[in-house]
Amino acid sequence: MTNLVEVRNLRIEATTDAGRVVEIIKGVSLDIADGEIVALIGESGSGKTTIALSLMGYARPGCRITGGEINVNGKNMAALSEKQRARLRGTDIAYVPQSAAASFNPSSTIMEQVIEVTRIHGLMSPEQARKRAVELFRALSLPDPEGIGARYPHQVSGGQLQRLSAAMALIGDPKLMIFDEPTTALDVTTQIDVLKAFKSVMRADGIAGVYVSHDLAVVAQIADHIVVLKGGEVQETGTTAQILSAAQHPYTRELLAAFEPKPRQAHADADAGTKELLRIDNVTAGYGAVRGDGLPIIRAVDSVTLVVEKGRNLGVIGESGCGKSTLARVIAGIHPAAAGDIVFDGKELERTAGKRSQDQLREMQIVFQYADTALNPAKPVEDIISRPLAFYHGLDRQARSKRVDELLDMVRLPRGLRYRRPSELSGGQKQRVNFARALAADPKLIICDEITSALDTVVAAAVIELLKELQRELGLSYIFISHDLSVVEAICDEIMVMYNGQRVEQITPDKLQAPTHPYSKLLFSSVPKLDPTWLDGLVRDPELVSQYGHR
Amino acid sequence: MARVAASRRSFLGHSYNLVGVVAALVILAWTLIAIFAPYIIPHSIGDIVDDDYFGPMRQGLWLGSDYLGRDMLSRVLMGARYTVGISLAAVAIACFSGVVLGMIAAVTRGWLDSCLSRFLDAMNSIPSKLFGLVVVAAVGSSIPALILTLAVIYIPGAYRFARALAVNINSMDFMTVARVRGESTAYLIGSEILPNIMRPVLADFGLRFVFIVLLLSGLSFLGLGLQPPLADWGALVRENIGGLPFAAPAVIIPSLAIASLTISVNLLIDNLPQKIRDRDA
Q1: Which domains can be identified in chain B, with CATH numbers?
Q2: A376, A383, A433, A437, best to mutate vs chain B, most B CBs in 10 Å
Q3: Which of A17, A334, A356 has the CB atom closest to B176's CB atom?
Q4: Nearest partner of A379 among B178, B10, B99, judged by Cα
Q5: Are residues A246 and A355 in the same domain?
Q6: Which of A423, A507, B119, B234 is deepest in the core (most CB within 10 A)?
Q7: At what angle do helices A126-139 and A188-205 cross, to 10 degrees?
Q8: Residues of chain B below pLDDT 50
Q9: Which residues of A are less than 8 Å from B181 in CB distance?
Q10: Which of A285, A314, A282 is nearest to A298 (CA)?
Q11: How many other C-beta atoms are found inside a 10 Å radius of the C-beta of residue A57?
């Protein structure tokens, strides 16, 4: 046996609630050498997490490993008993989950949870384990390595928690680490710290790794080999350089193409018809008790001013917690502003949606990030899309049905989907239905709140293309809120950078290379590039990082 | 996994199991009896047909006779009418008002929510039997009064339950979307929330039905329920309690009737058919 991990012809099946058997992994083979990091990449539902979990001999409820061998360190995980597997988990193989926040027990200290593995397997005394944990905290460049273990999970940030969960995995001295999308939920500025920490620890100890992700740029920074998956089958395998420079498979090319800068639609800048659609002046909004001056204690949005012109798009970008989503809710009237004016289409808008006229509500639609919660799970697609038609336009049943067909065509969904419920659609399809409902109102302005961030790269790119097309056809304006610079860059005419509730800069996409505000500089330089040497070569101004970066 | 799959069958796109079916059949049988009781009883419920009291089961008097020598079979069949009818009416009123109020409170929030919640919490703190006692003492015992009393007793529970469910749904983005669209409260509760809480609400309906059957039987046992010669199952148990030392069927049969109905409803709730929603189908 030459490789640490040798998976041969792995098959995993699942049983649906009708009793039908579905093959989710169809004969996958892959090798991982000692000290090598292999990335599993593919869209959601491609089986990447299922394969990663199977390396621990684990199949999620309803699934079973039905064929093939999973040799890890000379042992066939598929053939071992559950007891034998449990002995290997945490010592030979360790797992870092996607959401560290959901994986820590909120009611015990971090140190207790980090050294739990050594207690279960009887690896070392608690004193030794604590000492080792502090070493790991230091190696993962966590602040205050001596003291952080005494805190509770809610007292540290998301990026720190993710590194702490890596420490938890590393304490058993594993030969193989499995990372399941560990940075997907993090901001770009935080993601860099986490990636750097992971990479240096893995390299220093020569640990092999499996890195599951759908973000090719992140994978390019950390992986030696890339395995591209689709529909439970390996599409393409190669070294990172090979995949990035000479991808063979069409799906891989699609993934890569999603990173290429799109040709932007040309706007006649001196268009005589250009005029203001929305203007907000010095709007402040927030949460908590209201102080004497009528402003809330915690200001999520602090004196923000912005203008959206007819037929043009404004991007709002910033990290999580910077107030960009609150801004969207303030404009839509969901969260009333504490101060400031909102002028829409020449008329002053009430601060709360309930007091605005039906036409004002119709002309400004908001599309939310999570289509899962934005679509009523109990209703078929048809009902969801036709409600605005009945409500705003008073169409009868026949006219509605016809219009639903048109709208489904518009968002490139097959008409047959109208009878399905949201739970029976894919993520991209749900987001399209979500968008079709906004279009049904016949709006002038659509506020898109992170609408692509829950989607895979390829699907997100397709949604953005769709938005552009619809804009051309219908003359819409978008306010596009995102933490993903490449998405905003692709569609917006103006980009507003927000930090800590304030607007720090407003620039046009062609000037992205030369932001003037220091926070914009940090943010823009933190977006991962496809170049595998990018992370190692990245030098960030330490002063900037300490000022704006979160730990 | 395989065992579970084997014990469930499918029919019309729903999967169900045997326990649920048996329970449903028992409930159906009692419902039919409740509807058709006047046509199938062998004797009038007031007629004294036996020479002896607490008579044993025998031909002609299949379930024996009661403390006055009346036919037990007829009295149990007619009792089904009152027990099922009154309980059903009461539970329908209680759940409908409770669920509607709960959803309204969850959607509108603010002072209406606070007032409703506090008022119904106060109602909840009154012991149910005591409340029944007071009402019956005040307005006397009639079928409408009984139905209303039972309904009022169970409204706060239904309200709390529905409100807790609706508050969760209310925080979803599709509620925000509907609200920004300018939808009325009636649409929000009827069209957006209700379909999402229907299953738990139905389960709660069944559970509350059982509570009401038991409370009604309890009230009748205390003599506060239906007045003679009418008798629901609880009253039947009470008036025949003297037969206990003689092992008379007259006291056992109505008890079994109460047990069979309440247990069946419980079993049905736990084994409701599940719709098969196959993602790839």
Answers
A1: 14-275 (1.10.3720.10)
A2: A376
A3: A334
A4: B178
A5: no
A6: B234
A7: 120
A8: 1-6, 279-281
A9: 361, 387-388, 391-392, 441
A10: A285
A11: 23
| Phi and psi based region of residue A423 (left: phi greater than 0; alpha: psi -120 to 50; beta: remaining) | alpha
| Interface check B185 vs A, CB under 8 A | no
Q: What CATH number does the domain containing A499 carry?
A: 3.40.50.300
Tell me, yes or no, if B6 comes closer than 8 A to chain A by beta carbon: no
**Cβ contact B180–A378 (<8 Å):** no
Overall number of domains in chain A: 2
Measured between CB atoms, which of B176, B181, B279 is closest to A388?
Answer: B181
Do A242 and A343 fall into the same domain? Answer: no
CB A477 within 8 A of CB A445: yes
If asked whether residues A179 and A299 sit together in one domain, one would say no
Tell me if A448 is assigned to some domain.
yes
In a domain, A263, yes or no: no
Closest Cβ opposite residue B183 in set A16, A17, A391 = A391
Interface probe for A, chosen from B169, B173, B188, B192 (most Cβ of A below 10 Å), is: B173
- Same-domain check for residues A242 and A309: no
Q: What is the pLDDT, as a whole number, of residue A267?
A: 52
What is the domain extent for residue A386? Answer: 276-512
Per CB-CB distance under 8 Å, the chain A contacts of B1 are 15, 62
Buried b (16+ CB within 10 A) or exposed e, A245-268: eebebebbebbbebbeeeeeeeee
Q: Does B279 touch chain A (CB under 8 A)?
A: yes
Q: For residue A537, is it within any domain? A: no
The whole-number pLDDT of residue B6 equals: 40
Contact A198, A139 (CB under 8 A): no
In terms of domains, do A176 and A245 share one? yes
Residue A262 lies in a domain: no
Residues A126 and A190 in one domain: yes
Residue among A15, A361, A374 minimizing CB distance to B174: A374
Angstrom distance (rounded) from CA A439 to CA A474: 10
